[in-house]
Design a protein that fits this description.
The chain is an alpha+beta fold. It has helices at residues 15-26, 100-109, 131-136, 185-196, 221-229, 240-243, 254-261; strands spanning 3-9, 31-33, 42-49, 64-72, 112-116, 125-126, 129-130, 146-155, 163-165, 171-179, 200-210, 213-214, 249-251, 266-267, 280-285, 288-296, 301-307. The protein starts with a strand and ends with a strand.
């Protein structure tokens, strides 16, 4: 049993909780993920099963797409809806809430290549310890800003409208975000508030896509259980080769297959691919992923960095 599962993560579960549940449902201990979602968030969680766990490094850096609800009016200590309102940050504030045009302008300023400081309530490690472990002890740790890319950030129509005022004085903003890996949408929400001169936090988050994997391909945990009971897991399990379809591929002949399985380098003579130094390459045989190689331009070789197949 090996491949990729796209799970529609429910709210209230950690990503590790989902992994544990999937292990139990499918009867396979070797299950991992390519990137976590916060417990309150829902949507696409990419899980790797069996030997496919070896290809995590080629999927974890994928672009992400989110549907977010950003609440303007007050901040929380975690930057999201699970936190406590920060003292002195009144829901109404001393000024009227911004309108759609002002919000649009602030959103436009946050697109492109920007720097973002990781939040204290995050799993990012500094000095060998996760930041949230420091935060829970009331410690503030210096965090260097990280360069990220916000490819798309725009208002979208949610269940009601783009911008929805509340009687309590705050405003909910429905937004779509397409961003590079490592982006904290919570911080993006807070930064939007700063530009608008009001407190802000992330009130809702749903991951619609991770790389090529869309929510339309995802199954819930209950649906996965039903699939397993009907012995049709193969219908939702994506092969490692298909999961890496965004990488260029070479078809191995019998001699190359033997060398690749033994971890030996391949010369690139006769291989019709335009590659840059360090590029990853699928090394396949009859549509089975045998290995993922790295192109060594100075030596004109492809080195099998991760070997999977045994055909």
């Amino acid at each position: 049993m090996e491949g990729v599962l796209i799970i529609d993560k429910p709210a209230g579960m950690t990503s590790h909780d989902v992994v544990a549940r999937v292990r139990k449902i499918i009867g396979e201990r070797k299950v991992g993920h390519t990137g976590t979602l916060d417990p309150f968030a829902t949507g696409v969680l990419v899980l790797l099963v069996g030997r496919a766990t070896r290809i995590a490094q080629f999927l974890s850096g994928a672009e992400k797409e989110y549907h977010a609800v950003i609440r303007l009016g007050y901040r929380t200590d975690t930057g999201d809806v699970t936190g406590r309102p920060i003292d002195g940050d009144s829901p109404r504030g001393e000024r009227s809430m911004p309108g759609k045009e002002e919000i649009d302008a602030a959103i436009a300023a946050l697109r492109g290549e920007i720097e973002q400081t990781p939040p204290m309530y995050s799993a990012k490690k500094i000095g060998g310890r996760k930041l949230y472990e420091h935060a829970r002890r009331g410690e503030e740790i210096a965090r260097p800003p990280v360069g990220i890319t916000i490819h798309e950030f725009e208002l979208v129509s949610g269940d009601a409208e783009f911008v929805r005022p509340h009687e309590d004085g705050w405003v909910d903003v429905n937004a779509r975000v397409v961003c590079s890996a490592g982006t904290y949408v919570r911080v993006l929400a807070e930064d939007l508030g700063k530009r608008l001169g009001v407190g802000a936090h992330l009130a809702g988050l749903r991951r619609a896509r991770a790389g090529q994997f869309k929510i339309s391909r995802a199954v819930t945990l209950d649906e996965l259980a039903e699939v397993v009971l009907s012995n049709s897991l193969s219908q939702v399990l994506i092969s490692p080769n298909d999961a890496l379809s965004h990488l260029p591929a070479i078809e191995l002949d019998d001699d190359q297959l033997k060398r690749t399985r033994n971890g030996l380098d391949l010369g690139v003579e006769g291989i019709q691919l335009q590659l840059n130094d360090g590029d990853s390459v699928r090394m396949e045989k009859n549509d089975e992923l045998i290995a993922v190689g790295r192109f060594d331009r100075p030596r004109r070789l492809i080195h099998p960095a991760v070997v999977l197949g045994t055909s």
